[in-house]
Amino acid sequence: MVTGGDSGMGQAIAEEFAKNGADVLVTYLHDRAGAEETCRRIEQAGRRGVASHTDQRDAGAVARLFEEVEAKLGVPYILVNNAGLGGGDSDVADTDIADWDNIIRTNLYGPFYCCQQFIRLRKRAGGKGKIINITSVHEEIPTPRGAAYGASKGGLKTFTRSLSLELAPDRICVNAIAPGLIRTPMTAKRTEDPESMQRQLPRIPLRRAGEPWEVARLALYLASDDSDYVTGQSFTIDGGLEMNWGQGA
Length: 249
Prior knowledge:
Layout (H helix, E strand, L loop, with lengths): L7 H12 L4 E5 L3 H13 L4 E5 L5 H15 L4 E4 L15 H28 L4 E6 L12 H21 L4 E8 L8 H4 L2 H7 L11 H12 L10 E4 L3 H4 L5
Helix pairs in contact: 1-2, 1-8, 3-4, 4-5
């Protein structure tokens, strides 16, 4: 299962999983055409793809999602909590409570609801499995006017670590991927604007944006048997951005 599999990193992860033998259910909220394109790519790889319209802010909708995946593809073995929302962009004193709530419910409650349902199914199936939470470099890097987003991603990192300890006896591995600037529809306004990139690239030691397929290959490792001894970790993929933060102070 890959939430937010209609574009960007989610689409790349779903396609990579299919190329390596997985049937994949992807969720979408607004972009049905994108989700159908992801399913087309999954099927082109010879696997089964299912697109499900799901609002992960709604616990009931998430419960129905897991009933759907079990009915159509069987008990899921891998969960990638990729769906998320950017934004905020206001001082804390001026932040609209509804905007704060929307970001936290999407980026933190959504993965929590999905993990709850996934864990219940995996335990019923005898344990084992993989959970991959997509966080952000902002799980660590603070930004002014970005408190809501940072709180949601920092919270998801700590949730990942706590859950890894809780699920170790069940042999369910729980890890996170923390991307930096990746070329996706969410970042298009920055990555497709030469002036914006000219300002941002000096902060990234490798001097480029990352590509969705690079995140997908890391997700593939964390979803595979090769990572069975890896849990509770957050893997940063940011071209060195986090290492460069604060240099020159």
